[in-house]
Design a protein that fits this description.
The chain is an alpha/beta fold. It folds into two domains: about 150 residues, 3-Layer(aba) Sandwich (Rossmann fold); about 210 residues, 3-Layer(aba) Sandwich (Rossmann fold), CATH 3.40.50.180. The chain contains twelve helices and 17 strands. The relative contact order is 0.12. It catalyses: L-glutaminyl-[protein] + H2O = L-glutamyl-[protein] + NH4(+); [protein]-L-glutamate 5-O-methyl ester + H2O = L-glutamyl-[protein] + methanol + H(+). It is an enzyme of class 3 (hydrolase). This is Protein-glutamate methylesterase/protein-glutamine glutaminase.
Length: about 400
């Protein structure tokens, strides 16, 4: 059954449409959002066709979209929703399964801004505090982003689009205050004078799309060092993500295995549900997996990985922090910088959510803040040339 709310929401509320074939899920998620002061559920629909037909009337800022639905599923509906209202962001809800992971990554490639893993069966969803917290946080951050962009007359960028040709990247000058796209002037550090021997990357909301574009932009230079990635994702999802990243980078990629030595040219993805660290055994750096408590509600988290890499590789560490909610990675980025390494952050204009890169910049950890299309070529230059 379809429900379109009649009352107009307050102008500063985030407008949300819920599309799910389960009436229980629609009701439950509606209640969660309506208990918050900053959301207005403007419509609920049981399949994608009804949602697509209602987009211009309900004008949602955020659509929470189920994937498996009768009549029109989420993947079919997704491009229709974005065509009807291009400034809407779509948050895909999918099950914690291999099929759900594959479908979520396909949805991101089609233009979804992010995904949220949905507990299964429905009974567990009602009692899942983690799912509720993640859903509400993502809708809030994505919705705020849409409204800010709308006020500025801009459209939220989607890194799912094909990578743009990289613009020439100017060499970074000595440490000084340089203008940044949306924060005026920020203090940046000098790049390390030591050639990079490891590349570590942290990302969250919008990360899979940004990672694909970054790895393609970095190109053959990645063969020269090991690449470690923490993307906030649950188990199974990280397995599938590693496969997709390997294809995008044309490199060997898999989840990290405890005790596995680091090999140049290989991509190691932190497995969902475990922190991934690096430690030295003898004279060889190896992967260590940890079941330590979540950091910033996340496991894997970026901070522990960045800190461990900085401890082992020191000034030879090159870190990249991409789009994502929250502040995970800022403390670790500062550890890299204080060890003499270099950190590059994605800029606000090309981030789906600028929480993590912005926090790293605010911490004073960054040597550069660049658009996503420039980060890969810049990293390639640093690896091959050794100097900024």
């Amino acid at each position: 059954m379809t429900n379109v709310t009649g009352a107009a929401p307050a102008g500063d509320q985030i407008r949300v449409m819920i599309v799910d074939d389960s009436a229980v899920v629609r009701g439950l998620v509606s209640r969660w959002l309506e208990e918050e002061h900053d959301f207005a559920v403007v419509a609920t629909h049981r399949h994608g066709r009804l949602a697509a037909q209602d987009m211009t009337h309900s004008r949602p800022d955020v659509v929470i979209l189920d994937i498996e639905m009768p009549e029109m599923d989420g993947l079919t509906a997704l491009p229709l929703l974005l065509k009807a209202k291009p400034d809407t962001v779509v948050l895909v809800a999918s099950t914690l399964s291999q099929r759900g992971a594959e479908t979520s990554l396909r949805a991101l490639a089609l233009g979804a801004a992010d995904y949220v893993p949905k507990p299964d069966p429905t009974g567990r969803l009602a009692t899942s505090a983690d799912f509720r917290r993640e859903l509400v946080e993502k809708v809030r951050h994505l919705g705020q982003r849409v409204r800010a962009r709308s006020a500025a007359g801009q459209r939220l960028p989607l890194e799912a689009s094909a990578p743009k040709p990289a613009a020439p990247v100017a060499a970074a000058p000595a440490p000084q205050s340089r203008p940044h796209a949306s924060r005026g002037v920020e203090k940046l550090r000098p790049y390390s004078s030591v050639p990079a021997r490891v590349l570590c990357i942290g990302s969250s909301t919008g990360g899979p799309q940004a990672l694909m574009q970054f790895l393609q932009g970095a190109g053959p230079a990645l063969a020269r060092l090991p690449i470690l990635i923490v993307q906030h994702m649950p188990p199974t999802f990280t397995t599938i993500l590693a496969q997709h990243l390997g294809r995008a980078a044309k490199r060997e990629a898999a989840e990290g295995v405890d005790g596995e030595p680091l090999v140049a040219g290989r991509i190691y993805v932190a497995p969902g549900g475990r922190h991934m660290l690096v430690e030295k055994v003898g004279d060889k750096p190896v992967i260590r997996l940890s079941d330590a408590p979540p950091v910033h509600f996340c496991r894997p988290a970026v901070d522990p990985m960045f800190e461990s890499v900085a401890h082992v590789f020191g000034a030879a560490t090159l870190g990249v922090i991409l789009t994502g909610m929250g502040s995970d990675g800022a403390r670790g980025a500062l550890a890299i910088a204080e060890a003499g390494g270099s950190v590059i952050a994605q800029n606000e204009a090309t981030s789906v959510v600028w929480g993590m890169p912005g926090a790293a910049l605010a911490a004073g950890a960054c040597a550069a803040v660049l658009p996503i299309e420039e980060i890969g070529p810049k990293v390639s230059q640093l690896i091959v040339g050794g100097k900024a």
